[in-house]
Amino acid sequence: MTPNAYSLPQTLPVGAGYDPDVEARNAELLEAVDREYSGSATPGLGARLTAVEIESLLLARGDSLEAMLLLASRMRDDGLDRAGRPKTLTFSKKVFLPITNLCRDRCHYCTFVQSPGQLKKQAKPLYMSADQIVAIAAQGAAMGCKEALFTLGDRPEDRWPEAREWLNSRGYESTLHYVRDMAELVRQETGLLPHLNPGVMTAAELAWLRPVAPSMGMMLETTSNDLWAVKGRAHYGSPDKEPSVRLQVLEDAGVAKVPLTTGILVGIGETDRDRAESLLAIRDSHVKHGHIQEVIVQNFRAKPATAMHGAPDLGFVEYLAAVATARLVLGIDVRIQVPPNLADDASHALLVRAGIDDWGGISPLTADHVNPERPWPSIANLAEKTAAAGYALRERLTVYPNYIHEASTWIDPRLLGSITPLVDTQNGLATEKRRPTAQNSGPEADQGPSAPDVRKSAGRTMLGIPATPGTSMHAALRRGDLAPAALSEDDYALLMTAQGDDLDRLAALADNLRRYTVGESISVVVNRNLSSALLSATPRPGNITLGDVQDVVRDAVSLGATELCLQGTVPADQPAALYLDAIRSIREAAPELHIHAYRPADIVDGARRLDLAVEDYLLRLKDSGVDTVPGTGVKLLDEEHRSRVAPEDLYTPEWVSTISAAHRTGFKSTSVMVYGLGETASQRVAHLKALVAIQEQTGGFNELVLMEAQGSEQSLVAGRSRLDEHRAVFAVSRLIIHGSIKHLQVPWTRLDSNAVVEMLRCGANDLGGTLLDGRAVPWAGAEHGRELTGDTIREIERRLLRPVRQRTTSYGTVDGSGSTVRRR
Predict the structure, then answer these.
(1) C-alpha distances in angstroms, 254 versus 293, 409, 447, 792?
(2) SS3 category, 221
(3) Packing angle between helix 175-190 and helix 161-169, nearest 10 degrees?
(4) DSSP 211
(5) Which residue from 500, 516, 470, 263 is spatially nearest to 372, judged by alpha carbons?
(6) 193: CB partners within 8 A, 6+ apart
(7) Each residue of 324-352: pLDDT tens digit?
(8) CB-based burial of residue 560 (10 Å sphere; 0-12 exposed, 13-18 middle, 19+ buried)?
(9) How many whole angstroms separate alpha carbon 12 and alpha carbon 62?
(10) What pTM does this model have?
């Protein structure tokens, strides 16, 4: 990808494309717009700009862009005041349900859409089953989500016989019939409010879907006919991207009184005039019908394995101008939204200055399946960024307050029983006092012709297991279908012993759970390991000094590392402050490097040497520069087991209290389980449930790492292969941590390449660190000689047809690129 400046200071650089003549013209134009806005009796309608004038504003750079940001911010603030939520930006807490990846279109920038053959190679179903949909939605509701976003490709049955066969075999006339039933099922069984994004819909279909969803969405994207009609352009070969077809959907949604989300996609080859005309088309539709509840201004980010993978990302200054121009064109009453995961954290304040008032849907449970390489920001982090820009962040529902206030016009009465309990009566946003709950059926919705009863035809099972189980193992698998994280400890222990077909079904269940929550990307952090057990204040053979540490750090950074992992107990004959001195040395050598340092045992040792309470010592570590801590140094949270198999490890309750204290101090950490030391299935389950309990109290675990004990030959089931032992452990672990600890890591250093791939088919989604040996003191790494190479990564991608993306230690993107791992 072409690099571009997504991390900008509050004061803008001039930016590419600066033209003095355009600047002069825009200065006069903005003064005129400001006068018109300030004196307008109808400020909600936006400025009466022509396409030529809008095109000029889109080219604003330098001083004229600064002036436009000021005006856009003022208009947005006036709109928030008028809406009764001053200085408040919003988001929707949602689950993302990718109903099917099949589509009849061929957009050249899309990674969401796949063919039946690609899905088969990945062992991925053609459509999500009803049980998968409800299980994910129910978990989201338990986590406080209120929106269920239904996303899918346009009319896949028109292109793919496999889709038609799947629908026919379940009694469905079309994908839209299935979507309608699933939307009603989700609302009835979980209380989540459906927001439907099925692509192009006819007037009749919009009216037919309206009783099951309070809002719908379809991006206009662009009115450029060339992008659709000319071979090689972004929308060529995509019947549903013909501009006239999409404009008709905007018109029909207005007539049907559907609160609609739409927007433009900027940077896919359209011209500035195309952007101007697209904004005008949206404005004109809203002026006519009043139904556009929000407009997304989305920036193009190139994705690997697409026809446009080599196209440059949209430059940020250009993007900023598009967002601010949208505010001027659309006025103060239309909500302007940008996706926060498509821009760097450092850019969020500038986007707020451009006049946005909404961040869109964010999920604490599921991935962004359309942009899988770009994880959501945490809601807490986004709230901090929003506060730093001078605004509060509040949750809204999928349908905006003004449409709720006029529900008799905009919302089907059959939905009000689901919406009303979730509304904050003071401002129409989402209440923080209630979570969605299952709904009574209420009045029967008009099913329309050929719309089947979901309970008869939806195929409500992930794995095809009979509803009447034949064995206890089948019963446990069936219960896992319906509520993966709510099985009993006996169920989980039984599943730990699965073999043969049962194990295959268990692995498929776990992998689908992974797929529909954290997504398809496999993540890895580029890091360097360093053993603090080798630290020495003075030079001596076989040890490393602080000078050596700094050499290692600078070398690692030059090789692309973003993390240094430092762990191990400092020798007893070394100074008490050496733990802290090492951190200070690292921070001095590389101020931006993430320091992942010190196990609970190391923390306890360091605190003891300085005669400090653990909590006080943790504050010292934070002040010195530690960012996160490894949650290693424990095998199972069972004191009898520890005293027998690992008496040198930290006392089990002390490990729990130390890692919990680290979380309370603000540190995130890993969590681990070491298996294969003679423990029972019940002990494994109890350990995992204990980690989940800690997570519920502190929220501090970034991931779970499962490690077989070195040299282990033990298995829970006599004669079960080592590979199947691993598969059962990983699959059951994914079920137990579902909705709690998001990421499941494969310790690739302890498994052969085939086993690594298989674990990534059993619910795992992360490879940990690359463990660069580097050129400076390479032997000082705890796992020297086990570097994860680019060739290995490419082989994993090839075998699984899933992308490997580089992440930060905390699972963010690196440099905002969302790119795959740097190949060495």
Answers:
(1) 11, 11, 22, 52
(2) strand
(3) 50
(4) G
(5) 516
(6) 146, 147, 148, 187, 213, 214, 215, 397, 398, 399, 415, 418, 419, 422, 436
(7) 999 999 999 999 999 999 998 889 999 99
(8) middle
(9) 7
(10) 0.90
